[in-house]
Each structure stands twice: as structure tokens, then as C-alpha cells.
Amino acid sequence: LHAQCSQRLRSPLMDLCHVPPTREKGWYLALMAPNVKGPNYAWLDPSRLYCHPQGLQDCVGDLLQPFQGDPIDMVAGIDAMGFILGAAAAAVLRKGFLAIRKAGHLCVQTLAQPYTDYSGREKVMEVRTDAISPGLRILLVDQWVETGGTMRAAIQLVERLGGVVAAPPSRPAGVAAICIEDSEGGRWIRERYKCAHCVPPSLQPRFDRHQ
């Protein structure tokens, strides 16, 4: 990996060639950058992680590990950062990818679902109606689950179209995100759906406190 890294991917601020000798689950979380722009932004920026070749690969691998052997028909990613992890997961699984969009971007027939995002803003999410047939098993992917409102809206869209996100006890697909916080909405999702995330248990309290 070191020999193949391009010089353009190196800078004093971002060494994208360094890989620790022992790659424990979540090692790549240290690549993420803290918020330096104030309360109108998310507390942490994972996009730096995606620039690291091995970090991105291991992140996607950890997200998919709990679903090994599960019958997944399609991966759906949530606008916008969920597109990155979702498309990467779909490529690894050799499955199709469905974009769940913020309202107003799709020029085809859609189903809409209002929701409140992590910042408390009221929004609307939509999905095309011709991609999900009844019984289709969907793995839903987003970058982060903080309050759970965005992911819950995506789940509602899939299920309203007859798709299956998870159906205990068989639980054929589910929800994946870098972090699922221990919020009321996060717990609601964990209790009802098979979930995968990348934060080790020892670090989860710090992520829940945004530290």
C-alpha cells in the first residue's frame, strides 16, 4: 500500500499512506476530523476517513461483517454521505444501489416521508417507487445515526413500499452506519433492526457524549 500511494495523496496534514501494524476494528476512526466551524455543523467529520484507501476498505468490511451470509437483495444509501458508504458496500456485495434522496431531486414518481434531522430541522425524504418490490431485502446505510430521525424515515419509506429492512427472528437485512449513538432514536433502531457500526464498546460512551 505504501509503495502504491500517490504523492498527491500526501500532505503534512493528511498522511493517507500510514497504516497501523495492527488494524483493530475501528482503528480508522482516528482519521476523522473534529468540527472547527461551530454548532451549526456536525460534531465530527468522517469524510477524511474516506480519503484513506485502507481506512475506507476496513470501514466497509466492518459494516458488512455482521451481515455475512444474510440474503441481501439491494443496498440503499441515505442522502448525502450515506451514498459513499452505501455505494462502496453495494460494490463489495455485488448488489445494486438505491439512492434515498432529500426531496426535490428526483424527476420520476416518488414516495415522500417527512422527518426531523439531528439538528432539529424539518425535512422531507423521498425514494423512487419503481425500485423496491414487496419482499425485497434492503441493507440501509448512512454515515451516522445521531437522533435516528433520518434513518427512521428511510426505514419507513422502504417498508411503505413493501421492502424488508429487518424482520425478526429471521432479520434478513438491516441498518449500517459508522456510529449509532445511544440516543432515544438510536435505541429504537437497535431494538428493532439488525445493526452494524464501527465504534468499539470502549469508545461508545465518548461518541455518545460527542467527545
Give an overview of the whole structure:
- The chain is of the alpha/beta class.
- It has a single domain (27-208), classed as 3-Layer(aba) Sandwich (Rossmann fold), CATH 3.40.50.
- It has helices spanning 47-50, 53-64, 82-93, 149-160, 184-192, 204-208; strands at 10-11, 14-15, 33-34, 44-45, 74-78, 96-102, 110-116, 122-128, 138-141, 144-145, 174-176, 179-180, 195-196.
- The chain has a 7-stranded mixed sheet with strand order 7-8-6-5-9-11-13, sandwiched between helices. A two-stranded antiparallel ribbon has the order 1-2.
- Strand 1 (10-11) and strand 2 (14-15) form a beta hairpin.
- It is globular.
- The model is unreliable at 1-5 (pLDDT under 50).
Top keywords for this entry?
211 residues, alpha/beta, single chain, adenine phosphoribosyltransferase activity, Adenine_PRTase, 26% helix, disordered N terminus, PRTase-like, EC 2.4.2.7, Rossmann fold, two-stranded antiparallel sheet, glycosyltransferase
